[in-house]
Amino acid sequence: xxxxxxxxxxxxxxxxxxxxxxxxxxxxxxxxxxxxxxxxxxxxxxxxxxxxxxxxxxxxxxxxxxxxxxxxxxxxxxxxxxxxxxxxxxxxxxxxxxxxxxxxxxxxxxxxxxxxxxxxxxxxxxxxxxxxxxxxxxxxxxxxxxxxxxxxxxxxxxxxxxxxxxxxxxxxxxxxxxxxxxxxxxxxxxxxxxxxxxxxxxxxxxxxxxxxxxxxxxxxxxxxxxxxxxxxxxxxxxxxxx
Length: 242
What we know:
This protein has about 240 residues and is an alpha+beta fold. It folds into two domains: about 1-70 and about 120-185 and about 195-235, Alpha-Beta Plaits, CATH 3.30.70; about 75-115, no CATH class. The chain is built from six helices and 13 strands. The chain has helices at about 30-45, 50-60, 85, 105-110, 140-145, 175-180, and strands at about 1-10, 10-15, 25, 60-70, 70-80, 110-120, 120-130, 165-170, 195-200, 210-215, 220, 225, 230-235. The strands form three sheets. It has a seven-stranded antiparallel β-sheet with strand order 8-1-7-4-9-13-10. A hairpin with a 4-residue loop joins strand 11 and strand 12 (about 225). The longest helix is centred in the N-terminal third of the chain and has 12 residues, at about 30-45. The chain is globular. The two termini are about 20 Å apart.
């Protein structure tokens, strides 16, 4: 199997999750929808190409680990959409205001949100593609990550990377063996534990039953909502042996 090695290093990251009331939670690891959106953005695709992004998401095979564990923070947001500057035309770069769908409260009311983030962590991910006659190849993905069509971010537009995302291309028996063979990222000013929490496909590596869990990390890109359930394994990985 051939795969790209990605490093997610940013002051703040957010990986999405099932929203609870006003809380925009973050999953422990980045999901398929985040990687699909990241790559689609790098390729210059738009949300109007939902079917195309969905097919890419279906092809993704991902495993990831925390080289340096992050800290959890919650950011409180509030906005009054009824302010004149938010109602009147001309405040966007296109000269036309953008309003939320729904009734008057949704479009022009005061909204509160609690946005959950990971901070000061470094995550290594391995990304491969299932075979397909059409669609982008790993070469296309690598080229786009090196020279993206638009600025890239991890989950939310405020979560900008602090270093290059693509760091290598490797081959191995499967996605988990490739992840295990990657040297750990080290930083002298950030604490790290001996073992690294990781997530990988449940049909790889013969995980124990207690390591397998369901997650909901896929998106219906055509209708713009989260959908889909799959099984993954989570556990601790040791550092690669030189």
